[in-house]
Amino acid sequence: MNHNPADGIALTDTGSSSSWAATQLVRPGLRRNPRRAHLLVSTVLGKHIPVDPDVVVSAGEELAGLVAAAVGGSDVDVLGFAETATGLGHTVATALGAHCYLHSTRRIVPGMTVHGEFEEGHSHATDHLLMPTSPDLLAGDLPLILVDDEISTGATALDALRQIHPSAGRGHYVIASLVDMRTAEHLAAAAAVATELGIRIDNVSLAQGSVELAPGLVETVLALPDPTFNPVAARSGSVHRVDAQWPATLPDGGRHGFLRSDAAGFDIAIDALAATVDAGLADSKDVVVIGHEELMYLPLRLAAALQKRGHSALFQTTTRSPAYVLDAPDYPLRRGFEFTAPEDESGLRYLYNASAPQDATLVLVADAPADTDALAAAAETLAASGADVVLVVVTGADPVALELARRARPLRGPEFGSYAAEEVTWLLKDLSSVSLEAGIEEREKRIQAGEAHYAESLPVEYQPDLAYRELFEKVLQESASRLAVAVGTVTEVVLAERGHDIALASLARAGTPVGILMRRWAFAAHGIEIPHYAVSIVRDRGIDAVALRYLADHHDSRSVVFVDGWTGKGAIARELTAALRDFPGAEFDDDLAVLADPGNCARTYGTRDDFLIASACLNSTVSGLVSRTVLNDSLIRPGDFHGAKYYADLAPDDVSRHLLDTVAARFDDVRDEVSTSVRSVLASDRTPTWSGWASVEKVRAEYGISHVNFVKPGVGETTRVLLRRVPWRVLVRDADAPEHEHIRMLAAARGVPVDVVPDLAYSCMGLIKNVSTEDAS
């Protein structure tokens, strides 16, 4: 055949909104489809033609710029169309920093609910399914961006819009494409839908054009001889399999929704994937990374990451579309491969061109549902062409697990808590609307009787009188410099031993002010922004596993530093170690960083003195107006974070940020003292001796106390006993110590006797009353 049958397709440029023209973005191809015989083959998408990943990303970013202008810089959600635009849509969403990205799918996923569907009339595969982990991802008031690679009539986008709008209820939609081939009549139809639904529809594209088809093109294409697929070389290439693990609750694309908060974890996972694949490439430098069907964005990012590792990488994917293959000059589909669908073996899949410099390795990337015998057979089909094939199977991503994890949404101020959004991300479930408070006496009786766990309810927040609040201010001003030294010391020790690429995870709520202060010190001293999260840990129940999974999915688990205010007996340190030891799929370090370690049960600390940390003097009003954490089976479902309440009504008494600002204001004054302290700590033997636990046992025996949990050692723990438990008595080492003034005031207010015990290992201890015997025994 000497002529190019695609010559019967005439492309014309009619406009451009970018550096591209329509005739640069697409080339005419053919397909045997009686509804539509022509195919516009994109030169920048990476579907049918191998493309430099930088070109794909650049085109997507340029399209995102047009979208941003259309929405006036507003936050957006993005919907991409399967299968061709799944990667393009994700690229646009990434460039926009979209709140959520979702793409339609044609894959049936057991256990997942279909929340919407629409049709693409001219496509080889017409059905589009919408399967977000929650229908909430389709709702909202943000502009929704509908992304396709090429728009011929706009019917698919309008059908999708009609299906989504009743539940989404958005007022602004943008139809975005690389190339827009619609006529005036088609644009008028879109305007009519906008009027009908009372919405705004904008249209953006890199370029606009028109297509004119020769008469009888469909018949001409159907009459062409059968194309030849699956070229065979004199010598077959090799097939080498690489298994790559992906975090279970991190989406590997937009099929079930990709949130902005998923981006950091995705970047980390891609780097790890690239390292795994790079190790499996041996000496291969030229590669074509081939995604499978809708799995486009992950292989695109992999190709870009391999380029950074020194490979010359191109990118493309397989497809459902049976295009016509012809080895003729200027025709875009020069060779083709045909193989059985790996997912369900219900049909055929295709790959076109898959060409690169001689001796290039084909890197075929698929996910777990496609890991079948048919996938292995497809790899062998590619290898028969003479190319070496590296089959990369990315396993681990679990949409059902993701759906459960998605129930847990991180919280930030000002919607939750009084700390600024950048200071801390609360990995907690908001229970603010639930009544959980019980009187202290009643609550204590139920806990001690074994009828309830202390974490299932909350004590009524004790609000001290004016005299006590004035004392708090005095304590804060007098101890701020000492606190600043401890903050600087523990932060510098952490940075020296763990590096600067870390994430802080404070144990809510006592650890949270400390985590924020450590974050502030790191920025003031080194100019680094450290992410900071607050997570729940419950004695006898362990740390929040959903929060741990979130941290592991968004950061290198080895970089997470757990933070608390102080140690008492060391029960929480032991709880943390036990919880992290067997946590699957992650390598958390159980070294707990604390401001004060009087119990001698942590190796990373600011001081081992038992001194007053001002944040221990109050409850939520010094901890971001957030309650202690709650673990109650009736409220916390599988997949939820542990819970907490936000006491917004206490805002007039809130001193949370005041404490932070007061301590941070002393940072410059204590730099030299911190340097000396850090040298001393790093040079010392910091091996925990757990001496605090021994002293608690001694007190328990001397006072005839039945259980060690009734003994709370240290200034912070003693203050907690007086604020939210039923105290029996207080022990102090020095009757008139200034750091005990607030304790003596609280004890007097509650009628609690104070005993002086000169040889006490801690500066003070609080003993809890056994409410059944009216003493602590």
UniProtKB/TrEMBL annotation:
Residues 690-770 form the PELOTA RNA-binding domain. The keyword Signal does not apply. It holds the Pfam family StiP. Residues 417-663 form the Cysteine protease StiP N-terminal domain. Keywords: Glycosyltransferase, Transferase. The keyword Manganese does not apply. Coiled coil: none annotated. This is Phosphoribosyltransferase.
